[in-house]
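Form 7-S
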Amino acid sequence: MNRRELLSKMILATAAVGAAPLAYPMRALAAECSPIPAMPRTLVNFMLNGGADMRFVFMPLPGTLDPVHENLMFSARRNMYESSRTSPTMTYAEMFALEYDVPVGQDFGIHRSCGWLTGEFNAGRVAVVANAYCSRNRRHDQSILNADVGEPDFNELVFERDGWGGRLVEAIGGSANAVELGGSISVFNKGSQEGDRLAQVIHAANVRDIALPNVNASGGGTGRRDVVIRALKGYYQARGEEVLTEQPANWPFHTFFDHNAAFRAFGDDIAARMADCGALPLSLLPTSSGGSFDLFSNSFEQQCRNLYDVCLAPDLFDLRTLSMSYGGWDTHGGQEGRISRNLGDILGTDKGLDRATTEIANLGTNAIDQLVFYFASDFGRQLVTNGDLGTDHGRGIYAVLVGSDVTGGVYGTMFPSSEAVESNGKIPLETHGADIFGETSTENILAEVCEWMQPGSSASVFPNLDPSRVESAGMLNGLMA
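Output:
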């Protein structure tokens, strides 16, 4: 390729550009937006990294447990609640009235930081699977890995392997993709092909800036950045055409040219779709851009924007699974303030998922009814608080699913009476180190979700599934509509 040819390609590169990467334009969904394609059934795997204390979210309605059990539960956890610490004579009923809301017809409360979750439960769209487990140990690294690969008994710290989300999109087949909405790609998304585990993964850390950069023609296109962009586009286009004929098909560096061409075309298509559909809703714009979206976690704000945006382009992403995450759940100290803040960001009224799903519903497509959220954590927390107003690592958790096709309700025993009964000389609710006894493997829960996504897929996603690992036989039948 000579200099004249390169320069001609650079000129064409400038002429072909539309604009710089999209910022946050401030107007509503464009009235002239082309019809948005239908969304297929899509799983949102939401990881709560750090070991979330889901027992904090759900507590029994006063008077529904045996009095001894209720008193033990309150005494095991009361020093976590500021209300009971500042009022030493406060009863469990008084604390509960301040901290929890009772879903319609239920004998337990949901913490008030989770207003959106309570509303979804009342609408019949939330399933709570009690006494679940996704790992047999209390180590963060191993347990997060076990949750991502979908194998509670996996005992090797090997991150170069497939995740259950990756296996699911492979089982679905075709061009299905796992789409990561967070800052880094989790093992959950990875496929089974060694050396090419990201073949069906798209990292959408910022959907509106996912495209390779183009020259900003409206600014004159003469800045240093524009000069570099123009040169690279010209080189890849011109040199790519040459190597197709000059080099054999197995030439390893074809990969770079192929990837550049595919990624540029994909990014330009996404940018065009975002431009066609208009700006982000003001409710999802940060306050710095004139919006009203102001969570504690800025990174989670971005994930919520990404969730909305991928629902504008389900066909371009070929999405079937989405991955989201929120850290900061290792609450060894000062748990109430920290966990309430985190829960509020995600599950609170007019907060993260409430705003995102409201705006997705406003699109007028089928997307909101095709999404199922699955909330996972590496492990749970212990039953008894520690001396620092927090809880230490446990094992058993409450698994939570939210979606229109979820058969709402409680699966399993929310507050097992065995926690208040002496065993081997100890009562769990009086014993430091005791935790929720995990009886239902999350593999069995997720197998039901896989069958909803693609009938017959669970066998390949969870080849070592043991159907007996449930609290009671047949308990999960009908979990998904």
